[in-house]
Amino acid sequence: GAGVSQSPSNKVTEKGKDVELRCDPISGHTALYWYRQSLGQGLEFLIYFQGNSAPDKSGLPSDRFSAERTGGSVSTLTIQRTQQEDSAVYLCASRDGFNYGYTFGSGTRLTVV
Amino acid sequence: AQSVTQLGSHVSVSEGALVLLRCNYSSSVPPYLFWYVQYPNQGLQLLLKYTTGATLVKGINGFEAEFKKSETSFHLTKPSAHMSDAAEYFCAVSESRGNTPLVFGKGTRLSVIA
User: Alpha helix locations (H) across chain A?
Assistant: First the structure.
């Protein structure tokens, strides 16, 4: 597509439920990143996929968080047993192999109640 | 490890005045440096980037930034602020190899007063 698409744009869930956030990167972009943006905290790196390499999961805050990227394209970030501190905007970005600037999606605003 | 410090979580300027947003970085290898802008309820948009070559980088919307290795700085400037410049601005750094994720500063909110 023309840009990075994220869905849903907003998600309200009850504490303890699982949620799935979707990211559809720009076609042909080999690298895909997930970040979390909390109020006043800037952007926190979560996970990074590069081509067929094993993902860099070093930013995932707990084992309740996981992500996969199918067919080198769409990615899903899953948060199990959500907690109130998981409330944030989750941003996805992709880039091609030559341009070091990321293209970001508009994000998913997650609210855990 | 890399890090970014943005001085001032909130900067307020008058319309037509100079905009200066400060960014200092820490990196053990030659850095690539970026400025992004975020408007309310939107994702981040790339303003400009420094990778190699000329240290004064010009970006969109009249913004520019200068890479100063000796000062480990990459401050963002614009000669004359417009109301439409009001947004959140993020400075970011990555290793020049390009295989590591961007590390972002905490952001600076720019307000423009009429």
Answer: none
**End-to-end alpha carbon distance in chain B:** 41
Q: Could you tell me the strand order of the sheet in which A65-69 lies?
A: A5-7, A19-24, A75-79, A65-69
Nearby residues of A58 by Cβ (< 8 Å), 6 or more positions away:
A45
| CA gap B72, A102 in Å, rounded | 22
On whether any CB of chain B is under 8 Å from the CB of A34, the answer is no
- The confidence score (pLDDT) of residue A99 equals 67
Q: Pick from B25, B5, B22, B27: which is nearest to B100 by CA? A: B27
- Bigger pLDDT: A64 vs B29: A64
Flag whether pLDDT at A1 surpasses 60. Answer: no
Mutate to test the interface with B, among A35, A37, A100 (most CBs of B within 10 A): A100
Q: Is the peptide bond before A8 cis (omega within 30 degrees of 0)?
A: yes
Question: Hey, is the C-beta of B93 within 8 angstroms of any chain A C-beta?
Answer: no
Round to the nearest angstrom and report the end-to-end CA distance of chain A.
Answer: 33
Residues written for chain A: 113
So what's the pLDDT on residue A98? Answer: 67
**Among residues B45, B4, B20, B16, which one has the least CA distance to residue B110?**
B20
Rounded CA-CA distance B40/B86 in Å is 10
- Whole-number Å distance between alpha carbons of B89 and B21: 8
Q: Report pLDDT for A70.
A: 86
Q: What residue type is assigned to position A21 of the chain?
A: L
